[in-house]
Amino acid sequence: MDEMVAAICAEIKFRGDTNSVQLETIYFGGGTPSVLSIVQLERILKTIKEYHKSNPSAEITLEVNPDDLDLDYLDRIRALGVNRLSIGIQSFHSSHLSWMNRSHTSKQATNAIKWAKEKGFDTSSVDLIYGFKDLTMAQWKDNVERVLNSGLNHLSCYALTIEDNTPFAKIQRKQNIRLVNDTNAWKQFEYVHSTAIQMGWQHYELSNFAKEGHTSAHNQSYWNSKPYMGIGPGAHSFDGINTRSWNVSDNWKYIDLVNSGNINYHSSEQLNTIERQNEKIMVGLRTAEGISLELINNAMNNKEHPVHSFLQQNLAQISDNKLKLTIEGWWQSDHIIGTLFQV
């Protein structure tokens, strides 16, 4: 791990030589960064501050597993400047955690929230998963209500998807884990939406909920096409205009490249005008803000275009000169967004 941290710090220094933008958010993710020791985490943060300008009130998020947390650890990362956690709980029920191959227990999940609140990480987020066969509505209600009543201010809910050729796919085949049917998955999605709204939360993006003033600044920078810089193996960057770049994903190849002084991005692509427009449609319709009608003017001028059917079916609405999806539209967002893409 020390070799990886050294390589990451070397890349941070290199990127600092070419970056003049003030950092507004810092996010430790893409794996299990809470396995970093306090000394390693401190080294990375010090390197960032030494070679990059950053907002003194920057949102600094650390993805954590519940079993990595204790009160002392929280005190020490708070002292380093971490002010937000993303806690990968997924479920409070032991039977679910077992087949998900999660290393934490239900008690550790409960304690993680309790301790985060106690140590002042109020704006932290909890991840939950729904849409699998063994999740009853009673269990889902319990999961959701525990978070909404926890005193934390952000919740992310993701429908279970199983990608081919992944460790999770092997678990799925071995244990015959089945996805729930669309009707029940919709009921689970609609439940968290309606319950969060009733309790005064905002459903501000397809998978994200927050109390007012506690939306994720880091996530919104992606959705608003702001430039971002990725550090580490497989990390992606965007210049805010049309260029995406990314590092090699293999850990040891990444370390070898950095050690040899070859820190330039492994690959990059230039997005053309249509690709950028489609990306704005895809990302924008996942948010409560929606998209400007200017992005789909041609569709609006064609009365036979499916967008008019979406409006009639209450899958979408127009307000503030923007097209926005309703909750029912969000549930069918993949299909709706695909029909609006330019080719």
Describe the 3D structure:
28% of the residues are buried. Strand 12 (316-319) and strand 13 form a beta hairpin. Helix 1 packs parallel to helix 2 (38-51) and helix 1 (2-16) packs across helix 10 (251-259). The chain is of the alpha/beta class and 343 residues long. The strands form three sheets. It has a seven-stranded mixed sheet with strand order 1-2-3-4-5-7-6, covered by helices on one side. It is built from 15 helices and 13 strands.
Treating each run of at least 4 consecutive H or I residues as one helix, how many helices?
15
Counting DSSP E segments of at least 2 residues, the number of strands comes to: 13
Mean pLDDT: 91
Sheet with the most strands, sense and barrel status? 7 strands, mixed
Subunit organisation of the chains: single chain
Give the DSSP E fraction (strand runs of 2 or more residues): 15-25%
Distance between the termini: 45 Å
Strand order of the largest sheet: 1-2-3-4-5-7-6
Helix content: 40-55%
Structural class: alpha/beta
Overall radius of gyration: 21 Å
